[in-house]
Structure formats: structure tokens, C-alpha cells
């Protein structure tokens, strides 16, 4: 590992170490949704969102079900720091399916970028649940190396439009956060890999994507983060899921939320994803949610700010509510 990568990871470890007691409690007033098992089945004219942790979501409407960035296996920080082999944990995938009430069949997986905390579990889940995988070229080669059939992959670029039953997915351009000043594991995979990815650095960033999902009469924007000066290219959405893994991103949160003009804004990717899933939601120290909340109020940003706990399902209120 080179010196800048070592310094980056040491800084990350120090920041995450102080984040252990940071729960959702103080922000309970913003929580929406009910435990997934007690949520009503989604109507064809309606949309439900289930939060799966990190930047993972299940979107459902009628018969359609879409998974975004599902990541359940988690990976201990030491395995990332020391580049130990990492792999999906089959027991956790089963647990997550039960707790998250993930249906037995999925129409599509949407992958915002191919770092391990977004892509690691997708090949194993796709093998069990079916569905096509919408991902960058890099993500497609990584999935293929992990066993996904080429016919199930939809390597995608900004501007592409995919239809899955009554759902439409528009692929949008995106940028990755700068984490402590740099982009983790940058680079592309441009040809089939001889071996399956096995260490955190093997899951290269690829070309980051965002998505506009139109289903059940609603428009949902989802990304995993970004940088100031590259606002999302869509607006007037019902729900904006905005990546805040690095907090405000020096004003990027306000810029994104202003341009999205959403009815509801759900900050995302702000939990400590080195914790096991079973320990529940803890904010990561990098995310600084209290500051996001204060910024949203002070700048009178458009949209109602909401939060979701793990494996909770929220039926989006209809327009005008
Ligand atoms: Zn990433």
C-alpha cells in the first residue's frame, strides 16, 4: 500500500473509532416508516421504500421490486485496512432477507458505483432473486468475475433508459465523494477479469452513476454522494435520496437539494458500515448529520427532511401531502 493510501485509511479508522455511540435517537422526530414485516403490500399506484443500511434500498410498487446498492455482509475495518480477502456472508444475506422482507423475486439491481460497500453482495443476491443488474462497465466486469451471467448484466451509461415492467429507470451522471480529500480505489475495469475480486481495492470505483426511478406514480432520485459543482441533472422529484457519507461536502448537500426540489429529502450512506448489521444504525463520524439538519433548516432548503432506520418501510405519501 502506498503512503497516501495508508494515511487515508489511518485517518478513516480514527474518525470511525469515535462514532460508536451515535444513534438515531436524537433525531427520532424525523423518522418515517414502520418495521418492514408489518408494512402493507405496495399498491400498483403507490411506492414503498425500505432502508437496508448504507446506501441500500428496496423500492416496490405493485409487482415491481428494485434493489439499489444492497450491502449486508459488512466487512470489518481491519480487513479493509490490511487488504484481507473479503466475501459475501451467506448467513447475513438470509438474515437480511427475513428482516428486510425482501421479496423472493427482484426485477432489477441498480448499482451507483462498484466499491465493495455497494457491489459486494449483488452477485450472490442476484443469483438467488433474479433480475438484471444496472451498473457501469466496471461493475459489470466485477459482477461477471463473481459469477453473474453476462445476459443478466446491463452495463449502463448516463442517458440510458431501462424499463422493468411498469417501472422506468433513467441512468444519470454522478461523481463520487471526496473522502478526506481523495477518491478511494479509483479506476476502471475495461476487460474481463481472470479472477474474482477478493480484496477491498479490487472493487474499483468505475464510472459513478445516479438514477431516477419512476414507478407507482412517483419519481425517486437516488445517488450515493457527489461533489460541489456537479448538481444532479433532474429536479421536481417526490423523494431525493442524497448521499451524505461526508456530511455537507463543503456545500454540496445544499446545492444538490436546491436543484432537486424534492417533496422529501432522505440523507443516505451516513451510517458506520464497518459495524455488523445486527448492531443497528450508528452514524459514522464523517457524516455529521446534526450539521446537515441545521443546514437544511437555516438555508430553508426545499423538501421535508426525513430519516429511516434499518429494515423499515415507508409508503410515500401521494402528491400534495
Ligand atoms: Zn464509494
Give the topology.
Blueprint: H1 3-17, E1 34-35, E2 48-53, E3 56-61, E4 64-68, H2 77-81, H3 90-100, E5 108-110, H4 116-119, H5 122-129, E6 132-135, H6 137-145, E7 153-155, E8 161-164, E9 167-173, E10 209-215, E11 218-222, E12 239-243, H7 252-260, E13 264-268, H8 289-298, E14 304-305, E15 312-315
Parallel strand pairs: 4-5, 5-6, 6-7, 11-12, 12-13, 13-14
Antiparallel strand pairs: 1-15, 2-3, 2-15, 3-4, 8-9, 9-10, 10-11
The structure holds zinc ion (ZN).
The site of zinc ion (ZN) has 3 residues, from loops.
Describe it for me?
There is one protein chain. With 321 residues, the protein is an alpha/beta fold. The chain is built from 8 helices and 15 strands. It is globular, with a radius of gyration of 18 Å. The model has no long low-confidence stretch (mean pLDDT 92). Bound molecules: zinc ion (ZN). Zinc ion binds next to loops.
> What is the number of domains?
1
User: Class in CATH?
Assistant: Alpha Beta
The helix/strand class is alpha/beta
Q: Helix and strand string, N-terminal first?
A: HEEEEHHEHHEHEEEEEEHEHEE
What is the mean predicted local confidence, pLDDT? 92
> How many DSSP E strands?
15
CATH homologous superfamily placement: Ribonuclease Z/Hydroxyacylglutathione hydrolase-like
Q: Bound compounds, please?
A: zinc ion
> Which blocks of ≥5 consecutive residues have pLDDT under 50?
none
Radius of gyration: 18 Å
Number of separate helices: 8
In which order are the strands of the major sheet placed?
Answer: 1-15-2-3-4-5-6-7
